[in-house]
Amino acid sequence: MKKQLQASSYKLQDAGNGSALRHDKGRRAASAGGAVVAVFGWLRGLRALQLVACSLRLLTVAAVVLLSACASLNPSADFPTTEALVAASEPGAPVLEIQSWQTAEGAKVLFVPSDALPMLDIRLVMDAGSARDGGNDGLASLTSALLGEGAKDLNVDDIARGFEDRGAEFSSSSYRDMGIISLRTLSDTEFREPVLDLFGQVIGTPTFPQEALERIRTQMMQGLRMEQQVPGPQVSKAFMATLYPDHPYGSASDGTLESLPAIQRAQLQTFYDTYYAAGNAVIAMVGAVDRSQAETIAAQISAALPAGEAAPKLERATPLASRQREHIEFPSAQTSILLGNQSTWRGNPDHVALYVGNMVLGGGGFASILTDEVRQKRGYVYGIGSGFSAMAAGGPFQVSFKTGNENADQALSLTLQLIDDFIQQGPSESQLEEARTSILGSFALGTADNSDIIGQLGAIGFYDLPLDYLQQFSQQVRDVSADDIREAFARALKADDLAIVSIGPKAPQIVPVDEPAESDVAAVSVEAGRGEE
Question: Which among 81, 162, 291, 470 is placed 20 to 30 Å from 216, CA to CA?
Fold first, then answer.
């Protein structure tokens, strides 16, 4: 409410300034005989301001009436009825009425009824990511990419036209942990049922046509060749390979120029039958259907999938015990640097403490320590950030930034020092409170619409999180302390063991850190921005 009032005030001031500019132009163009016109123009402007003021008073009265009416609907609720009360109120955790059951074939179902739109969103999440490639790098990605390219008695045009003609959207994607198949359709029976019949054919009888395999394989290989011309993808792949040298997470998810040509159509079919099985699937649904309809839809989808059990759990990844360094020589004006180590996993009891602490360290944008020290005070980088990426069997802590080659040593050394300081000291109380407020204030956006909710359901089901996970997370964010964060970071990270992976003309070195010269901070920051451009 307070931000809305401030925004409205700003717009009114802006409109007033614009009017003043127009009046000035009129006065400059007027002759002596036009003075009367100017006076009448001024009076009209005054009348307009009076109307605006009156309108604001009416809006204020209407807002108070509406707030009071809302409060009267539930007198026992602490409903904020003034700007001060709104500002003081805490944002509540999103409450999703998640219903869950299991199909006869073993698929886990999570369902949230929602009549906000006459739509139904369905997401199938399988333990079918690149971690299941089994040494055939790119197998999971190719399998996912060919879904929808052909099914029994249907070619790619039949499938695309069948969905589009009924206003439906079909897609598939692949990640390290999971393979995903998504469908959005109108919820009305007239449209929903034929779309679901087509969906069942696509996921139940994929044919992986040879022509499509060759076409998509060629596209993927062209993409890999293009990645060799830019530093970002190269350093990212080297980072994961360095952190996970003996774990499936270290493999090349999109394949390599050597692995892709060796993948055969029969391997795609075997991979699909094994990892896209009903017993290995989570079926998430959000939309305008009731429980009975949702059960029927889930049963139909589950029966269409290949029969099979859940994939065995991956072995937990272990962190590097000492610093590893990897540098890729590349002719560029900037050096890209990634720092990190294996540090977390889904289900880690320290997850919330690490998440909140990272908002202070490097995940909170301009409010974070890394941005303030490395960009704002020294101007070494245009942007810098950090994050924990929790997956089923592990997940890296990662800091990434690009810097001018002449600043690479200092930027690297300063960043390592700041990370070490944070591990030792943790956040201050004021930093923690700012991070907490930011997280809670934006948390509701994670369930703002059906597409957001379906993503939450898929993750909750896939990672076997409690159905009230969002409420638990919100409460834990409120409860976490600065000591909790410091202790969690000490358990998760050692600054001396962080891998350093870089790409540029030469490898950056660790050197003594220079203190910023106050008079030079603004000028250096501008130069850093120009260098990024």
Answer: 162
